[in-house]
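Memo to structure team: turn this sequence into C-alpha coordinates by end of day. - J.P.
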Amino acid sequence: MGQWVRLEVDDAVAVIRLDRPPANAIDLAVGTELCETIESAVGRDDVGALVVWGGPTIFAAGADIKAMAEWGPDEVKPSVDALGAACDLLEAAPKLSVAAVNGFALGGGMELALASDLRVVADDATLGQPEILIGVIPGAGGTQRLTRLVGAARATELVVTGRRIDAGEAASLGIATHVVAPDRVLDEAIEIARGFAQGPRAALAAAKAAIRAAGVTPGPAGIADERARFLALFGTHDQREGMRAFLEKREPRFGEPPS
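Reply from structure team:
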Protein backbone atom coordinates (compact mmCIF):
# COMPACT_ATOMS: atom_id res chain seq x y z
CA MET A 1 0.00 0.00 0.00
CA GLY A 2 2.79 2.41 0.83
CA GLN A 3 6.46 2.77 1.60
CA TRP A 4 6.35 1.31 5.10
CA VAL A 5 3.18 -0.78 5.28
CA ARG A 6 2.31 -3.61 2.88
CA LEU A 7 -0.89 -5.55 2.29
CA GLU A 8 -0.96 -9.16 1.09
CA VAL A 9 -4.22 -11.09 0.70
CA ASP A 10 -4.36 -14.87 0.41
CA ASP A 11 -7.31 -17.20 0.96
CA ALA A 12 -9.46 -14.44 2.52
CA VAL A 13 -6.79 -13.36 5.05
CA ALA A 14 -5.18 -9.93 4.76
CA VAL A 15 -1.68 -9.68 6.22
CA ILE A 16 -0.84 -6.06 7.09
CA ARG A 17 2.94 -5.93 7.30
CA LEU A 18 4.92 -3.13 8.94
CA ASP A 19 8.27 -2.89 7.18
CA ARG A 20 10.30 0.07 8.39
CA PRO A 21 13.75 -1.24 9.35
CA PRO A 22 15.37 -1.54 11.74
CA ALA A 23 12.68 -1.30 14.46
CA ASN A 24 9.37 -0.51 12.71
CA ALA A 25 9.31 2.85 14.53
CA ILE A 26 5.87 4.40 14.11
CA ASP A 27 5.88 8.00 12.90
CA LEU A 28 3.27 10.06 11.04
CA ALA A 29 3.98 8.34 7.71
CA VAL A 30 3.69 4.84 9.20
CA GLY A 31 0.55 5.74 11.14
CA THR A 32 -1.06 7.22 8.05
CA GLU A 33 -0.18 4.18 5.94
CA LEU A 34 -1.54 1.88 8.64
CA CYS A 35 -4.87 3.74 8.53
CA GLU A 36 -5.03 3.53 4.74
CA THR A 37 -4.09 -0.15 4.69
CA ILE A 38 -6.53 -1.17 7.41
CA GLU A 39 -9.35 0.72 5.67
CA SER A 40 -8.47 -0.94 2.37
CA ALA A 41 -8.37 -4.44 3.87
CA VAL A 42 -11.63 -4.01 5.78
CA GLY A 43 -13.38 -2.73 2.67
CA ARG A 44 -12.46 -5.69 0.50
CA ASP A 45 -15.07 -8.38 -0.10
CA ASP A 46 -12.36 -11.01 -0.52
CA VAL A 47 -11.00 -10.37 3.00
CA GLY A 48 -12.60 -12.07 5.99
CA ALA A 49 -9.98 -11.47 8.69
CA LEU A 50 -6.79 -9.49 9.31
CA VAL A 51 -3.30 -10.28 10.58
CA VAL A 52 -0.96 -7.48 11.69
CA TRP A 53 2.71 -8.44 11.57
CA GLY A 54 6.00 -6.61 11.86
CA GLY A 55 8.21 -9.28 10.36
CA PRO A 56 10.17 -12.18 11.85
CA THR A 57 12.43 -10.15 14.16
CA ILE A 58 10.35 -7.28 15.57
CA PHE A 59 6.70 -6.21 15.76
CA ALA A 60 7.20 -2.51 16.48
CA ALA A 61 9.44 -0.80 19.01
CA GLY A 62 7.25 2.26 19.49
CA ALA A 63 7.44 5.84 18.27
CA ASP A 64 10.31 7.55 16.53
CA ILE A 65 11.81 9.10 19.68
CA LYS A 66 14.70 10.72 17.83
CA ALA A 67 12.24 12.76 15.78
CA MET A 68 9.96 13.55 18.73
CA ALA A 69 12.57 14.54 21.32
CA GLU A 70 12.41 18.29 20.66
CA TRP A 71 8.75 18.53 19.64
CA GLY A 72 5.95 20.29 21.47
CA PRO A 73 2.27 19.29 21.59
CA ASP A 74 1.43 20.78 18.20
CA GLU A 75 4.25 18.94 16.45
CA VAL A 76 3.56 15.54 18.00
CA LYS A 77 -0.24 15.62 17.69
CA PRO A 78 -0.48 14.51 14.01
CA SER A 79 1.69 11.45 14.66
CA VAL A 80 -0.16 10.25 17.75
CA ASP A 81 -3.49 11.02 16.07
CA ALA A 82 -2.51 8.84 13.10
CA LEU A 83 -1.50 5.87 15.25
CA GLY A 84 -4.57 6.34 17.45
CA ALA A 85 -6.79 6.36 14.37
CA ALA A 86 -5.17 3.15 13.10
CA CYS A 87 -5.76 1.46 16.46
CA ASP A 88 -9.36 2.69 16.54
CA LEU A 89 -9.98 1.38 13.02
CA LEU A 90 -8.55 -2.02 13.91
CA GLU A 91 -10.60 -2.27 17.09
CA ALA A 92 -13.85 -1.12 15.44
CA ALA A 93 -13.47 -3.16 12.23
CA PRO A 94 -16.24 -5.73 11.70
CA LYS A 95 -13.54 -8.22 10.69
CA LEU A 96 -11.51 -9.91 13.39
CA SER A 97 -7.81 -9.17 13.66
CA VAL A 98 -4.84 -11.11 15.01
CA ALA A 99 -1.54 -9.45 15.96
CA ALA A 100 1.45 -11.67 15.15
CA VAL A 101 4.14 -10.53 17.59
CA ASN A 102 7.78 -11.39 17.09
CA GLY A 103 10.56 -9.68 19.00
CA PHE A 104 9.54 -6.42 20.65
CA ALA A 105 6.09 -4.83 20.92
CA LEU A 106 6.75 -1.67 22.89
CA GLY A 107 5.00 1.67 23.23
CA GLY A 108 3.03 2.34 20.08
CA GLY A 109 3.74 -1.20 18.94
CA MET A 110 2.10 -2.54 22.09
CA GLU A 111 -0.86 -0.22 21.51
CA LEU A 112 -1.29 -1.60 18.00
CA ALA A 113 -1.19 -5.16 19.33
CA LEU A 114 -3.73 -4.30 22.04
CA ALA A 115 -6.10 -2.92 19.40
CA SER A 116 -6.14 -6.32 17.70
CA ASP A 117 -8.70 -8.89 18.83
CA LEU A 118 -6.18 -11.66 19.54
CA ARG A 119 -2.41 -11.72 19.96
CA VAL A 120 -0.14 -14.59 18.89
CA VAL A 121 3.18 -13.96 20.67
CA ALA A 122 6.58 -15.57 20.19
CA ASP A 123 7.85 -17.32 23.30
CA ASP A 124 10.92 -15.05 23.29
CA ALA A 125 9.02 -11.80 22.69
CA THR A 126 9.07 -8.72 24.94
CA LEU A 127 6.08 -6.44 25.42
CA GLY A 128 5.43 -3.25 27.36
CA GLN A 129 4.32 0.35 27.67
CA PRO A 130 7.62 2.00 28.69
CA GLU A 131 6.59 5.58 27.86
CA ILE A 132 6.82 6.69 31.51
CA LEU A 133 10.59 6.10 31.36
CA ILE A 134 10.91 8.93 28.83
CA GLY A 135 8.57 11.27 30.66
CA VAL A 136 5.27 10.64 28.87
CA ILE A 137 2.41 8.09 28.83
CA PRO A 138 0.78 5.99 26.11
CA GLY A 139 -1.20 8.27 23.79
CA ALA A 140 -2.88 6.01 21.23
CA GLY A 141 -5.24 4.17 23.56
CA GLY A 142 -2.76 2.04 25.49
CA THR A 143 -3.95 2.94 28.99
CA GLN A 144 -7.59 2.37 28.05
CA ARG A 145 -7.22 -0.95 26.22
CA LEU A 146 -4.72 -2.35 28.72
CA THR A 147 -7.06 -1.51 31.61
CA ARG A 148 -10.01 -3.20 29.89
CA LEU A 149 -7.86 -6.27 29.23
CA VAL A 150 -6.01 -6.78 32.53
CA GLY A 151 -7.83 -4.57 35.05
CA ALA A 152 -6.91 -1.24 36.62
CA ALA A 153 -4.37 -2.50 39.18
CA ARG A 154 -2.30 -4.51 36.70
CA ALA A 155 -2.50 -1.78 34.05
CA THR A 156 -1.39 0.82 36.59
CA GLU A 157 1.63 -1.23 37.60
CA LEU A 158 2.72 -1.79 34.01
CA VAL A 159 2.19 1.80 32.89
CA VAL A 160 3.63 3.67 35.87
CA THR A 161 6.74 1.47 36.07
CA GLY A 162 7.27 1.07 32.33
CA ARG A 163 8.20 -2.52 33.07
CA ARG A 164 8.65 -4.91 30.16
CA ILE A 165 7.09 -8.35 30.31
CA ASP A 166 7.93 -11.63 28.61
CA ALA A 167 5.55 -13.87 26.71
CA GLY A 168 4.81 -16.06 29.73
CA GLU A 169 3.67 -13.13 31.84
CA ALA A 170 1.76 -11.67 28.89
CA ALA A 171 -0.13 -14.96 28.65
CA SER A 172 -0.83 -15.11 32.38
CA LEU A 173 -2.28 -11.57 32.22
CA GLY A 174 -4.43 -12.40 29.21
CA ILE A 175 -2.51 -10.11 26.85
CA ALA A 176 -1.07 -12.97 24.78
CA THR A 177 -3.83 -15.30 23.67
CA HIS A 178 -1.39 -17.78 22.09
CA VAL A 179 2.32 -18.31 22.75
CA VAL A 180 4.29 -20.22 20.12
CA ALA A 181 7.84 -20.66 18.83
CA PRO A 182 9.12 -17.58 16.96
CA ASP A 183 9.09 -19.31 13.58
CA ARG A 184 5.44 -20.31 14.08
CA VAL A 185 4.02 -16.88 14.92
CA LEU A 186 2.87 -15.76 11.48
CA ASP A 187 1.61 -19.19 10.42
CA GLU A 188 -0.37 -19.57 13.65
CA ALA A 189 -1.89 -16.11 13.29
CA ILE A 190 -2.88 -16.78 9.68
CA GLU A 191 -4.37 -20.16 10.61
CA ILE A 192 -6.51 -18.53 13.30
CA ALA A 193 -7.53 -15.70 10.96
CA ARG A 194 -8.40 -18.16 8.21
CA GLY A 195 -10.77 -19.93 10.58
CA PHE A 196 -12.54 -16.60 11.13
CA ALA A 197 -12.60 -15.86 7.40
CA GLN A 198 -14.25 -19.22 6.72
CA GLY A 199 -16.71 -18.86 9.59
CA PRO A 200 -20.04 -17.07 10.00
CA ARG A 201 -18.77 -13.54 9.33
CA ALA A 202 -21.91 -11.67 10.35
CA ALA A 203 -22.06 -13.53 13.65
CA LEU A 204 -18.35 -12.98 14.28
CA ALA A 205 -18.75 -9.25 13.61
CA ALA A 206 -21.75 -9.15 15.97
CA ALA A 207 -19.79 -11.00 18.67
CA LYS A 208 -16.88 -8.59 18.35
CA ALA A 209 -19.16 -5.55 18.54
CA ALA A 210 -21.10 -6.91 21.52
CA ILE A 211 -17.91 -7.71 23.45
CA ARG A 212 -16.62 -4.21 22.71
CA ALA A 213 -19.90 -2.77 24.01
CA ALA A 214 -19.25 -4.56 27.31
CA GLY A 215 -16.26 -2.27 27.83
CA VAL A 216 -17.72 0.91 26.38
CA THR A 217 -21.35 0.72 27.56
CA PRO A 218 -21.47 -1.96 30.29
CA GLY A 219 -24.58 -2.98 32.16
CA PRO A 220 -28.10 -2.68 30.73
CA ALA A 221 -26.99 -0.80 27.60
CA GLY A 222 -24.44 -3.48 26.72
CA ILE A 223 -26.94 -6.27 27.35
CA ALA A 224 -29.50 -4.54 25.14
CA ASP A 225 -26.88 -4.16 22.42
CA GLU A 226 -26.05 -7.87 22.61
CA ARG A 227 -29.70 -8.86 22.39
CA ALA A 228 -30.36 -6.63 19.38
CA ARG A 229 -27.37 -8.11 17.56
CA PHE A 230 -28.47 -11.64 18.44
CA LEU A 231 -31.95 -11.07 17.02
CA ALA A 232 -30.60 -9.43 13.87
CA LEU A 233 -28.72 -12.62 12.95
CA PHE A 234 -31.91 -14.64 12.63
CA GLY A 235 -32.92 -15.06 9.02
CA THR A 236 -29.36 -14.76 7.73
CA HIS A 237 -27.90 -17.50 5.56
CA ASP A 238 -25.27 -18.41 8.15
CA GLN A 239 -27.82 -18.70 10.97
CA ARG A 240 -30.04 -20.99 8.94
CA GLU A 241 -27.12 -23.02 7.64
CA GLY A 242 -25.48 -23.30 11.06
CA MET A 243 -28.62 -24.54 12.77
CA ARG A 244 -29.55 -26.84 9.91
CA ALA A 245 -26.05 -28.36 9.96
CA PHE A 246 -26.31 -28.89 13.72
CA LEU A 247 -29.60 -30.74 13.34
CA GLU A 248 -28.24 -32.77 10.43
CA LYS A 249 -25.03 -33.59 12.35
CA ARG A 250 -22.68 -32.23 9.69
CA GLU A 251 -20.17 -29.41 9.33
CA PRO A 252 -21.77 -26.07 8.39
CA ARG A 253 -20.99 -24.40 5.08
CA PHE A 254 -20.86 -20.76 6.03
CA GLY A 255 -20.76 -17.92 3.54
CA GLU A 256 -23.17 -16.55 1.03
CA PRO A 257 -25.04 -19.23 -0.95
CA PRO A 258 -24.02 -19.61 -4.61
CA SER A 259 -25.98 -17.36 -6.98
